[in-house]
Design a protein that fits this description.
The protein has 161 residues and is mainly α. It folds into two domains: 71 residues, no CATH class; 79 residues, Winged helix-like DNA-binding domain superfamily/Winged helix DNA-binding domain (Arc Repressor Mutant, subunit A), CATH 1.10.10. The protein has eight helices and no strands.
Length: 161
C-alpha cells in the first residue's frame, strides 16, 4: 500500500469526524463486536483517491464512505443459521477419517452456545482453514482483535465441556 500524501492525509483527517459518527451509529445498532472505527479509517485511506470535490463535500464523502465500509462488515458477517452451520460441520467431520472430536454431538451443541460472531470466527479458522491474519484482513480489523475473540470462544467451549 502506498503512503498518503499530505493533502490526502488532510482530507482523511477532515472526513474522520463524520465517518466516526456513522461508525458510532452502526456500533449502537449492531453492537460493539466489530471494529467500526477501524473499518471506516481503512476505507477512507483506501478510497481517498476517489474523492471529487465537485461531487460532494468532505463531510458527505466521509459519511458515504463510512456507510459503505460498515455495510460491508454487516454483509460479510450475515448470520448463518445454527442448524445450517451444524449440518455443514457434521458433514465435514464425517468426511474425515480421523477427527479430534470423540463425541460430535457434544461439540456441535457446544458451538450452538456461542454468539454468532465467535461462532463465525471459529468457523473460518477451524473449518475453512483460514489463518487469523486472513480473517482479520478480510474483516478490516486487527489480528489481535480476532485472537481475543477466538481465545474467548475457546475458553467458553472449555468451560461448557
Amino acid at each position: 500500500m502506498t503512503k498518503l500524501t499530505l493533502s490526502q492525509q488532510d482530507l482523511v483527517t477532515a472526513a474522520l469526524p463524520s465517518a466516526y459518527y456513522v461508525a458510532a451509529r452502526y456500533g449502537r445498532v449492531y453492537g460493539q463486536g466489530h471494529d467500526w472505527r477501524g473499518a471506516v479509517q481503512l476505507a477512507l485511506c483506501q478510497r481517498v483517491g476517489n474523492y471529487r470535490p465537485e461531487k460532494a463535500s468532505v463531510a458527505k464523502w466521509g459519511r458515504v464512505t463510512a456507510h459503505y465500509a460498515c455495510r460491508g462488515i454487516i454483509q460479510h458477517w450475515s448470520p448463518m443459521p445454527v442448524a445450517q452451520m451444524t449440518e455443514e460441520i457434521e458433514s465435514r467431520l464425517q468426511d474425515r477419517e480421523e477427527t479430534e472430536f470423540e463425541d460430535r454431538q457434544t461439540a456441535l451443541s457446544l458451538l450452538e452456545g456461542l454468539d454468532e460472531r465467535k461462532r463465525r470466527i471459529l468457523w473460518r479458522i477451524y473449518v475453512d482453514g483460514q489463518s487469523q491474519t486472513a480473517v482479520a484482513h478480510e474483516l478490516g480489523v486487527s489480528g489481535a482483535w480476532i485472537w481475543r475473540l477466538r481465545t474467548q470462544a475457546l475458553a467458553q467451549l472449555r468451560e461448557r465441556a
